[in-house]
Automatic annotation (TrEMBL):
Organism per entry: Bombyx mori
InterPro entries for this protein: MFS_dom, MFS_ERD6/Tret1-like, MFS_sugar_transport-like, MFS_trans_sf, MFS_Trehalose_Transporter, Sugar/inositol_transpt, Sugar_transporter_CS
Domain Major facilitator superfamily (MFS) profile: 178-600
UniProt record similarity statement: Belongs to the major facilitator superfamily. Sugar transporter (TC 2.A.1.1) family. Trehalose transporter subfamily.
Keywords (A to Z) from UniProt: Cell membrane, Glycoprotein, Membrane, Transmembrane, Transmembrane helix, Transport
Annotated compartments: Cell membrane
GO cellular component: plasma membrane
Name of the molecule in the record: Major facilitator superfamily (MFS) profile domain-containing protein
């Protein structure tokens, strides 16, 4: 039934009048709500957004013009060149179809207008959010862009400097200078270790020295280094890393001058003790300094430079010792601390030490020097501050906290690495390389063999430098362990056959080959990595104290091995000694597999958070995804 007032049916007429009356009084409930929304939008957004006429008494031309004006800017319903429609069109005289058509058209326009206004408001809000997200995402987008070098952004951060990619372009020159400076100092450590091998061959000529005293020439240095390691921890905390390192240059020179001018064995002992104390101090200070100044992307490669230069010092001792006697060789050693001291003057203190002393501006200046003037350092400074705040919040005595549940995993990993590093017997091989070749009866000259071992030791560390940030720490430790186990077993078999009077003349090359592979394996893994990880895995709160403990423990093991090496040989012969070292290497391999975490590419803050969280097994750190931003 049609509800029109012109309908002859009475009910139809009544319903038609009611419908018209409802329309004139404001339309349907939905329309009234829509009008209320329009009124609110009009009041809040201004006259720019004119309401669509809602009453049917308005002309069609006015409705079209209003819609064209208000909606045309939004790209919706833009009417052009409309023919004028008579202003007064009586709705009462229109037909039912015209009435329905007009009503539908009006409601349609109202809905479109409401949608348009709502969408515009929503659109602007979304654009504001997207604009903010864009500001935050620009660094990541630039990082992933293959044309990131050419890309520039106008977005600024809080301090007014342009945003950079999160993994920023590395400014390596200053970091390389810092690593090179401490590495030159590491030559003193290597030279002190390698000095014994060539020196003891000529000491008997000018000094009245016994066989037992010769063992003390080799053993006093690591024993004194034990003391230096214990003293060095408090020194790097109170004086700073840089001042502690620089302070060893003068005592190093004094120690070598005592040895060079020695007229009796006591002076040699005194010089070795002084040099040994300095060796212990710098052994813990170097990895801490490198760990706190070098970025994670190159910390593995540059962190091995001290070990590489330490091996250079061993090689220098072997090379120069083949031409000079023990006294002149000591004069040569006295000259090494000079360039080391001069280079350290150019480098800054570590930012982390400054932060630990609440000297934030100096920390910022140091970090700026290390990272470059055009690099955004705010995130790194924030991480340093947060890490230090967390360390300060825990409070308490650092020494008492060493073996607390929070820090025990990191401390035990450091001690374990130092234990297996030294009990592989490397220092016994380095200290007594010439004597080992004499005992082997090899056809290769003992001095030449020592030089070859020194060259291999030198080159292999640079191989490790190229591989450590590609393969990771644990893979190199695996390779190192397998190489040492294989060669120690083979060399032990050679000495076993020789001990049992079996002719091994045809295999005279085997001792040199085994020792070369043994030194190569050690130098790419268990040689440098324990020292590198010493500066990586120890939490900042206990870093100085724990590094002191680990260094002292390392030199204790070194002293035990070098001092008792000859006694062990006398007890179980050379083959038994080498096989004992091989068994210890197997234990070291198992220790690495089950307990040592992978730290490649991770910041010190990430490593500390994982090791001290206590929520997962320690080795699971290697399975965590690397943070890009």
């Amino acid at each position: 039934m049609s509800f029109n007032k012109n309908n002859p049916n009475a009910v139809g007429k009544i319903m038609g009048y009611l419908k018209q009356l409802s329309t004139e009084m404001g339309g349907s409930e939905q329309t009234r709500h829509a009008q209320g929304d329009e009124e609110r939008l009009y009041r809040t957004r201004g006259p720019k957004y004119a309401r669509v006429p809602s009453k049917p008494t308005l002309s069609a031309s006015t409705t079209s013009t209003s819609l064209a004006t208000s909606c045309g800017s939004q790209g919706t319903l833009v009417p052009t060149n409309y023919d004028p429609i008579p202003e007064h069109v009586s709705t009462e005289s229109s037909s039912e179809d015209e009435q329905d058509s007009f009503e539908k058209t009006r409601r349609h326009f109202q809905q479109l207008r409401q949608i348009s206004l709502g969408n515009e408001f929503k659109y602007k809000m979304e654009m504001e959010i997207k604009d903010e997200n864009l500001r935050n995402s620009v660094p990541f987008v630039r990082q992933l862009s293959t044309d990131s070098v050419k890309t520039k952004t106008e977005y600024d951060n809080e301090d007014g400097t342009p945003y950079k990619s999160t993994t920023q372009k590395l400014f390596l020159w200053t970091q390389l200078l810092a690593a090179f400076a401490v590495s030159v100092g590491s030559m003193n450590v290597g030279f002190s270790s390698g000095y014994t091998s060539p020196a003891v061959l000529t000491m008997n000529i000018t000094l009245d020295i016994t066989k037992e005293e010769i063992t003390w020439v080799g053993g006093l240095m690591p024993l004194a280094a034990l003391v230096g390691g214990i003293v060095g921890g408090p020194l790097i905390e109170y004086l700073g890393r840089k001042k502690t390192i620089m302070g060893t240059a003068v005592p190093f020179t004094i120690g070598w001058m005592l040895i060079a001018n020695a007229i009796n064995v006591v002076m040699v002992f005194a010089g070795r003790v002084i040099c040994g104390v300095c060796v212990g101090i710098v052994s813990l200070a170097f990895p801490v300094y490198i760990g706190e100044t070098i970025q994670p992307e190159v910390r593995g490669a540059l962190g091995l430079l001290p070990t590489a230069f330490g091996n250079t010092g061993i090689l220098l001792a072997f090379l120069v010792g083949s031409y000079l006697d023990w006294s002149n060789l000591a004069f040569f050693g006295a000259a090494i601390p000079v360039p080391f001291f001069l280079l350290m003057i150019l480098t800054p203190e570590t930012p982390r030490w400054y932060v630990s002393k609440a000297r934030v501006q100096e920390a910022r200046k140091s970090l700026r020097w290390l990272r470059g003037k055009n690099v955004n350092i705010e995130k790194e400074m924030r991480d340093l501050t947060i890490s230090q705040t967390e360390s300060d919040r825990t409070g308490g005595n650092a020494f008492k906290q060493l073996f607390s549940k929070r820090y025990l995993p990191a401390v035990m990993i450091s001690l374990g690495l130092m234990l297996f590093q030294q009990l592989t017997g490397i220092n016994a091989v380095i200290f007594y390389a010439a004597s080992i070749f004499q005992m082997s009866g090899s056809s290769v000259d003992e001095n030449l063999a020592s030089i070859i071992i020194g060259v291999v030791n030198f080159i292999s560390t640079f191989i490790a430098t190229m591989l450590i940030d590609r393969l990771g720490r644990k893979v190199l430790l695996y390779i190192s362990s397998v190489a040492m186990i294989t060669t120690l077993l083979a060399l032990g078999a050679y000495f076993y056959l020789k001990q049992n009077h079996i002719d091994v003349t045809a295999y005279g090359w085997l001792p040199l080959a085994c020792l070369v592979i043994y030194v190569l394996g050690f130098s790419i893994g268990f040689g440098p990595i324990p020292w590198l990880m010493l500066g990586e895995i120890l939490p900042s709160k206990i870093r100085g104290t724990a590094a002191s403990l680990a260094t002292g423990f390392n030199w204790t093991c070194t002293f035990i091995v070098t001092k008792t090496f000859q006694n062990i040989i006398d007890a179980i012969y050379m083959h038994g000694t080498l096989w004992l070292f091989a068994v210890i290497c197997i234990g070291g391999l198992l220790f690495v597999i089950f307990f040592v975490p992978e730290t490649k590419g991770k910041s010190l803050e990430e490593i500390e958070m994982k090791l001290t969280s206590g929520s997962r097994r320690v080795r699971n750190i290697s399975k965590q995804p690397e943070n890009i931003c």
